[in-house]
Write a structure and sequence with these properties.
Layout lengths: L5 H10 L7 H13 L1 H29 L6
Length: 71
């Protein structure tokens, strides 16, 4: 896998949220995102969504563990 198209790159970025990428995968993905602004944007959006969901999950845990009556 020497060259990725955008579909392959975005799929690989999504997969990287679930499993570590192999060194060769990381390298070709870095090369692709270095030249492709659209995939760089996708990667940034994916990171933003991941952080937002972590914050949402933390808030939901706090709300769930709060004492009854909101005190």
């Amino acid at each position: 896998m020497l060259k990725l198209n955008c579909e392959q790159a975005t799929r690989m970025m999504s997969e990287s949220q679930e499993r570590p990428l192999r060194p060769a995968e990381r390298t070709v993905l870095r090369m692709h995102t270095w030249i492709c602004a659209g995939c760089r944007n996708f990667g940034g959006q994916l990171g933003f969504i991941r952080q937002a969901m972590k914050g949402f999950a933390a808030q939901a845990d706090d709300d769930h563990n709060a004492p009854p009556g909101g005190a």
